[in-house]
Design goal:
Radius of gyration: 29 Å
Number of helices: 4
Distance between the termini: 99 Å
Length: 98
């Protein structure tokens, strides 16, 4: 007694193989589309008081941005300082120096 019909036909096998091949080649194309970041990050060391460090952490929490970190908070502050006029920037810096 033979069991007929339990083997895959050549066409079904080709179809499955083609599907697998399409999946592999598609993922290769997607990986090639990913760009490496052109930005180069450098580490710098500077001094902060405990209070200033805590203020940065508080701002980080208050921002409620999941991807934010301490560096992002400092960048945001820098961008806001860049918007100030030269006189306002000078006053802000002088108030911190005192």
């Amino acid at each position: 007694m033979a069991l007929k019909g339990l083997t895959k036909s050549a066409q079904e096998s080709k179809s499955t193989d083609q599907t697998i091949e399409d999946f592999i080649s598609g993922s290769t194309k997607r990986v090639k589309k990913l760009e490496c970041s052109q930005q180069v990050y450098r580490r710098f060391t500077f001094s902060l008081t405990k209070d200033v460090s805590k203020e940065i952490d508080d701002l980080l929490i208050d921002s409620r941005v999941a991807k934010a970190n301490r560096s992002v908070i400092l960048k945001a502050a820098l961008h806001q300082l860049q918007k100030l006029s030269k006189e306002d920037l000078q006053q802000a810096v002088l108030s911190e120096v005192k």
